[in-house]
Amino acid sequence: MRSPSRCSLFAVLHAAVLVVGCGSDKASTTKQAPVPAPLVRGSAEPVAAEPPAPAPEAKPAPAPVAQTEIAGGGHDFTAEGNALLTVGACGGGSAPEGIPPAVVEKHCAVITTARDAYHNKWVKPASAFFADHVPKDIPKKVVYPFAGGDLSTALTVYPDADEITTLSLEPAGDPRTISTLKGKELEAALAKVQYELKFLYRVNFSNTLNMIEAMRGGALPTQLIFGLSAVKLHGYDFVKLRYFRIEEDGSIHYLDDAEVSKAPAVTTNAQDRNFLFSNAEVQFRRPGGRIQVWRHIRANLGNDKSKGIGPGLADDPRVVKHLESKGQIAAMTKAASYLLSWDSFSIMRDYLIKHVVWMVSDATGVAPRWGKAAGFEYETYGMFEEPHIPAGHGIAKNWRDEFKAEPKRDLPFRFGYYDKKIRNHLIIMRRKPV
Asked: Is 64 exposed, middle or buried (0-12, 13-18, 19+ CB in 10 A)?
């Protein structure tokens, strides 16, 4: 989710893709930079004088064993995840050893106030809307491109998803620093998390420039903390954390103990380390429920190579291969700088058109110009006449005509961008039955 005031920079940064399960801040080659090499007794006749044996006491059927993790191996960062949940995401529990409780209490007083306000003002009305509008029979695999740090909206729309994949320029971040930051360094790192998380809760999308600084060079893994905060906010329990990279065939390789042991020390450049830990998997569940999965992939979703960022999807198709392996999906996007209407992002747009069954967006989603030709129908809510940023001017008439052709439907909350007249809008795109 992106800031309206930063669209031009965001578009430049997205002109190519860099998917790094392990890498650096420098321009990459087509291949991902690798991390170093890296559970009766019977009787013929009855005895009349002997009373019959009492019937055995009925025992309840054994409770099903709760699933504890998704298979795949890899280094277990769950301890660090729990610490980050408590300290950064304010998920409750005692502060880890070495972190003063007063520091956590001060940080979390701000975060919990902002989170509670966001939950009451946005999550409650949005959850009620989506409970009524999201079909029960759509795919349980969700893809959210241009997501910024926003897992929370995905969990609002798709609370029962088996897996949610978010993609953005920002890395999940190095989780090891939670055990090393002390004193003023820890307070400064928490202050950065606090500022960005409050911004997200207040306006429900993220500022690109701020996200770049906070998540690429952050002393704490800010992107990961945002996700853990969403898990807490929506009432799930955190289960497990591990990191991965995407292989040439699109499959996932979880970073193993040997690879992690050779990662740069936490005292080295933060951006290098955060890029190494770009892609994270968080397993979570409702209390007593099944495991659900959130995977975040650091990816620039443009078609072509761009200086300082790396190859685009045309030259490095690993992300597309990974997404295609999911088959049919549900999807969403919002506040995405209208990039899906640009020719330079056609590969990502085409992927969505080929694989989406049901998708929700603001006017930065897949426009009718492409969707209707591919067999989709649209349902609009709120009002849209003109985009409030120049990046959307090229597709404005297409959306305006669609809204005019649709019945007027109210929208009781903001979903991503508003239009030029500060009016909320939302679009449902669904594939027509064959």
From this structure: exposed
Give a yes or no: residue 206 inside a domain: yes
Reported confidence tier of residue 7, pLDDT bands at 50, 70, 90:
very low
Q: Which helix (H) or strand (E) holds 107?
A: helix 101-118
| Residue 228 neighbours by CB under 8 Å, 6+ apart | 81, 84, 85, 88, 89, 91, 238, 282
pLDDT in tens, 379-400: 999 999 999 999 999 999 999 9
How far, in Å, CA of 217 to CA of 394, rounded?
34
Whether 415 maps to a domain, the answer reads no
Q: Which pTM value belongs to this model?
A: 0.83
Residue 144: domain span: 4-26+70-346
Distance CA 395, CA 416 (A): 17
How many domains in the chain? 1
Residues in the chain: 434
For tokens 């761009």, what's the residue? 306
What is the C-alpha to C-alpha distance for residues 378 and 332, in angstroms, rounded to an integer?
14
Q: Does residue 282 fall inside a structural domain? A: yes
